Amino acid sequence: MNIHRGLLAFIAVSSSLLFAQQPKQPQQPMSFFITSTGSGKGADLGGLAGADRICQDRAASASAGNKTWHA
C-alpha cells in the first residue's frame, strides 16, 4: 500500500515539473469571437451598420477593440 502511495506521489511531482518546464506559447491575436449577449431587440440589429457597431462594442468590452470588427 505504501509503495502505491509513493509511486503516485512521484508521478504527481514529476508531472508538475514536466508542465512547469514547458515554455509558454505567445498569445495569438484574436481573429474572430462569438458572443451570447443579445442586442435587446431580438433579430433587429439595425441593419448591417448596426450589426457591425454591436460587434465593435462587444470586442471593445472584451479588450479587443483595437481593430475593426464586422458582423
Major β-sheet, in short? none
Structural class: mainly alpha
Topology pattern, helix = H, strand = E: HH
How would you describe the shape?
A: elongated
Question: Which value, in Å, is the CA radius of gyration?
Answer: 23 Å
Proportion of residues in β-strands: under 5%
Oligomer: single chain
Helix content percent band: 40-55%
Describe the fold and architecture.
- The chain has 71 residues and is mainly alpha-helical.
- It has helices spanning 2-20, 47-61.
- The longest helix is centred in the first third of the chain and has 19 residues, at 2-20.
- The chain starts with a helix and ends in a 10-residue tail after the last helix.
- The model has no long low-confidence stretch (mean pLDDT 78).
Summary, kept brief:
This protein has 71 residues and is mainly alpha-helical. Helices cover 48% and strands 0% of the residues. The chain has helices at residues 2-20, 47-61.
Write the layout of secondary structure elements.
Layout: H1 2-20, H2 47-61
Tags for this entry?
71 residues; mainly alpha; 2 helices; elongated
